[in-house]
Write a structure and sequence with these properties.
The chain is an alpha/beta fold. The chain has a single domain, classed as P-loop containing nucleotide triphosphate hydrolases (Rossmann fold), CATH 3.40.50. The chain has seven helices and seven strands. A five-stranded parallel sheet has the order 2-3-1-6-7, sandwiched between helices. The chain has a two-stranded antiparallel sheet with strand order 4-5. The longest helix is centred in the last third of the chain and has 22 residues. The radius of gyration is 16 Å and the shape is globular. The termini are close together.
Amino acid sequence: MSKVIITGTPGSGKTTILSKLSKEFRIVSIGTEMMKRLSKRLESRDDIRRNLSHTEIKAMRKIVLEDISKINENIIIESHTSIKNGKKYELGFFPEDFPMLMDVTAIIYIDASPNDILLRRINDKTRSREAESADEITEQRSVNLSLAAFYAQALGTPLYIIINRQDMVDTARKEVEQAIKESFSQ
């Protein structure tokens, strides 16, 4: 059984693409799983980064990853590459998490231009995000791409980068589905 990690900078269209994937794929969201465990303490997923300490986030992610590592079927793990909180970046995966991710056969990074990301964030009324400039988004993309490459290297797995261009989500979805199928067949 294989696991594929799908990640991307907030606003790249990751959630939209995941919602349009074939129903044959099982998706497990680390953020959603964390919220299930924290719903009595927090109101939204955005509160995780605002209200939990680094140590609490790390501990909660470990619990969720331990549960995910026990799933014995092909799954997609949805996660952030990093979580930006002010000027600080929290890792999406910590080195001590890697033993629980050894059956990951690919990392798929959803990307978009800084201007597309900025426009999507402005128009997304479902999330509570800080206003960031195109330059700040460019920095965040650079950090995330570097971390995605590091995670792929640490896990010994390929890294796919899928560009989700404005108004071309179906093209990106098809590319993501192809990468998933390739990865699940390994």
